[in-house]
Amino acid sequence: MEERKKIIFSGVKPSGDLTLGNYLGAIKNWVNLQEEYDCYFCVVDLHAITVKQEPKELRRRTLEILSIYIASGIVPEKNTLFIQSHVSAHSEASWLLNCNSYMGELGRMTQFKDKSQKYGESIGAGLFTYPVLMAADILLYNADLVPVGIDQKQHLELSRDIAERFNRVYSPTFTVPDAYIPTFGAKIMDLQDPSKKMSKSEENPNGYILIMDPPEVIRKKVSRAVTDSIGVVNYTDDQPGVKNLINILSSIKGVPAEDIVKSYEGLGYAELKRDVADSIVSELEPIQNKVRDLMNDKTYLEEIYKKGADKANYVAMKTLRKMQKKIGLIPR
Ligand code: TRP
Asked: Where along the sequence does the record place the motif called 'HIGH' region (predicted)?
């Protein structure tokens, strides 16, 4: 008998336009997982609305992310691509898990602590329960592995705690998921301040590259990237700007950082920046063209997300029914 493929779940939140960091840190790696694993890739729109979203922009970004998945090489027929809000089990399971989670553990999440500093008393309740919805996403599919960046590791740990607790209290129900950290999925830093993660929410747009940035904008942003006065291409924490550029090249080419460093012996930052810009443009340009085509073919996108939702719904509903039954809710 053929062995069951391991299950992978991951998602991207349509709260801002995606950056090169989202692409290299997540989506590009997912492409390599689709043969070996049974993958669910979701656009987590319900997570996006934990902060205010302009409805029209939210709709556009949700479809754009789905298009980026497909344009990057994730094959819809081989995976389950869907939009979170299309599968109501996510919201329902999230409530059930909320009732089995503690204020204390949610209050310890650093992402929540950071945001509550920013918003104070008027922080949305959704930001507090955000990791419970994420646990629901993962646990409904009994995911074995969850590819996440370092910043989401704490949320994943919490998903494990929630799963283990539920299994203990109500009898084994969920697979306890593991984080999946990809080999070349280095964290991409801000080009202007390499001590911070590359993020769309930074004030200075020169700090980030968007997946949909035109080639000339990409070249300009790379040429303005902050380096240092050392002038030698080294992979060290003392040269965070250069290290970040090397990480970008390394992720795009799938070549270890040390080999990249060797190839710049006797060369300077100008050559490095030129190659980084070239590699980003040649990686992103075909994806951008495909995304534009897909965004102009809403019928096709609709077909994909409807099929995805049907597939996801079938699996998620089975898990949700189990949860309801074990908790003591009367089946209809
Ligand atoms: N919270 C994740 C992020 O901000 C997105 C996300 C939501 C997610 N649900 C998930 C990631 C489930 C992995 C699995 O990046």
From this structure: 14-22
205-292 is classed in which CATH architecture? Orthogonal Bundle (1.10)
Which atom of ligand 1 is nearest the CA belonging to 44?
7
- Residues 6 or more apart whose Cβ sits within 8 Å of residue 147: 8, 10, 26, 29, 30, 33, 179, 180, 181, 182, 185
Task: Provide CATH 3.40.50.620 ranges for the chain.
Answer: 7-185+298-327
Q: Residue 210: left if φ>0, alpha if ψ -120 to 50, beta else—which one?
A: beta
Q: Which CATH architecture has domain 7-185+298-327?
A: 3-Layer(aba) Sandwich (3.40)
Ligand 1 binding pocket includes 13 (Cβ within 6 Å): yes
How does pLDDT run across 10-62, given as a tens digit for each residue? 999 999 999 999 999 999 999 999 999 999 999 999 999 999 999 999 999 99
Q: Is 149 annotated as a binding residue?
A: yes
Nearest CA, atom 8, ligand 1: 11
Name the closest-CA residue to atom 4, ligand 1.
13
Backbone angles phi, psi at 147, to 5 degrees: -70, 115
Q: Would you state the structure tokens that stand for residue 80, as one six-digit string?
A: 């389950």
**Active site (catalytic) residues:** 115, 197, 200
| Every domain range in the chain assigned CATH 1.10.240.10 | 205-292
